[in-house]
Every structure is written in structure tokens, then in C-alpha cells.
């Protein structure tokens, strides 16, 4: 079975195509599980890789799209969400909420509606690359289109 035939990849691709038929999932020969691996595979800067990090707050979840060369700031995220308790979601939560496994969490095509925060530092790049449902699958998108397709709120969420 091709990577592009896997259900999570098809779900991500469906969301991309509904938004813009020119957006395509790219299957890589090498892993893009980490931002560094993805940047090496794609020949781009680590910062142009979009990390999709799921955080838990009380009984809700927020997906944070963070530049590959930055670290999410819990304190900034807490202030934006006006929550005292914010923590990384467990691997099981990530799978149950997004429908993706860690390393392949796409910013689109989730099983549940999730609020999304976008790291404003991603605006430095013309092209961004984000996971598309599998650690070896990504898609290329502009910052503006990433904002539109996710309905994400752009904020300073990194250290």
C-alpha cells in the first residue's frame, strides 16, 4: 500500500483539495517525523517546517502550529487562552482528537473541531511545509493559505 493510500493521509489530502486543488501531499522517501528530518528531506530551513503540537486545557484541546526552529511557550499560550493549566496532550489524546499519530499530525483534516493558534514567526517564509497524516508525508503551503485553511489565530506563541 502506498503512503498516499493510507486513511489519515487521504483525510489530510481531502481537506487540502477542498481548500485549493493545487495543494498536494508529497510522499518523502525519508522521514519527516521531526522538523530537522523534514528540513533535511525537503532541503529547506528548519523554521519553514510547521510543527503541529496539541495542548490540553481543562477539557479542551488547542492545536499550536509552531515554526520548526522555535519552541512553544506554555506561558504565552496560557495567557492567550486565559487558562491556568495547559499541558502537552498525550499520544492517545493526539490520536483520538486529531485522528493522526505524533510525527504525522496535520494542521487540517482532524476528526474533531479544534481551535488553532499559529506561530507568527512562520510569516518569515514564502513556503511552509506541514505534516499530511503520516511521518513521511507533507504538503507545501503559504503562510496566508495556512491561516485561511485552518481558521487559526496568529499569535506570538514561542520562546
Structural commentary:
By secondary structure, the chain is α/β, with parallel strands linked by helices. The chain has one domain: YbaK/aminoacyl-tRNA synthetase-associated domain (YbaK protein), CATH 3.90.960.10. The chain contains 5 helices and 8 strands. Strands 1, 2, 3, 4, 5, 6, 7 and 8 form an 8-stranded mixed β-sheet that branches. The mean pLDDT is 95.
The second-level CATH architecture is Alpha-Beta Complex
Structural class: alpha/beta
CATH class (first level) name: Alpha Beta
| Average pLDDT reading | 95
Write down the overall geometry.
Answer: globular
- Tally of DSSP helical segments: 5
Secondary-structure map with pairings?
Elements (H helix, E strand, L loop, with lengths): L6 H13 L5 E3 L7 H8 L6 E9 L2 E8 L6 H8 L5 E2 L2 H8 L16 E5 L8 E7 L2 E5 L1 H8 L2 E3 L4
Parallel strand pairs: 2-6, 3-5, 5-8
Antiparallel strand pairs: 1-7, 2-3, 2-4, 6-7
Characterize this entry briefly:
By secondary structure, the protein is an alpha/beta fold. The protein has a single domain, classed as YbaK/aminoacyl-tRNA synthetase-associated domain (YbaK protein), CATH 3.90.960.10. It is built from five helices and eight strands, in the order H-E-H-E-E-H-E-H-E-E-E-H-E.
Question: Any descriptors?
Answer:
globular, 159 residues, YbaK protein, 5 helices, alpha/beta, single chain, 8-stranded mixed sheet
Amino acid at each position: 500500500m502506498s503512503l498516499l493510500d493510507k486513511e489519515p493521509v487521504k483525510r489530510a489530502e481531502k481537506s487540502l483539495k477542498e481548500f485549493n486543488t493545487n495543494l498536494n501531499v508529497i510522499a518523502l522517501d525519508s522521514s519527516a517525523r521531526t522538523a530537522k528530518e523534514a528540513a533535511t528531506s525537503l532541503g529547506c530551513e528548519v523554521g519553514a517546517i510547521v510543527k503541529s503540537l496539541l495542548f490540553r486545557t481543562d477539557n479542551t484541546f488547542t492545536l499550536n502550529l509552531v515554526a520548526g526552529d522555535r519552541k512553544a511557550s506554555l506561558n504565552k499560550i496560557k495567557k492567550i487562552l486565559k487558562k491556568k493549566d495547559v499541558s502537552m496532550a498525550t499520544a492517545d489524546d493526539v490520536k483520538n482528537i486529531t485522528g493522526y499519530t505524533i510525527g504525522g499530525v496535520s494542521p487540517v483534516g482532524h476528526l474533531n473541531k479544534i481551535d488553532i493558534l499559529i506561530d507568527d514567526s512562520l510569516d518569515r517564509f514564502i513556503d511552509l511545509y506541514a505534516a499530511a497524516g503520516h511521518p513521511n508525508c507533507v504538503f507545501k503551503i503559504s503562510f496566508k493559505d495556512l491561516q485561511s485553511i485552518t481558521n487559526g489565530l496568529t499569535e506570538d506563541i514561542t520562546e
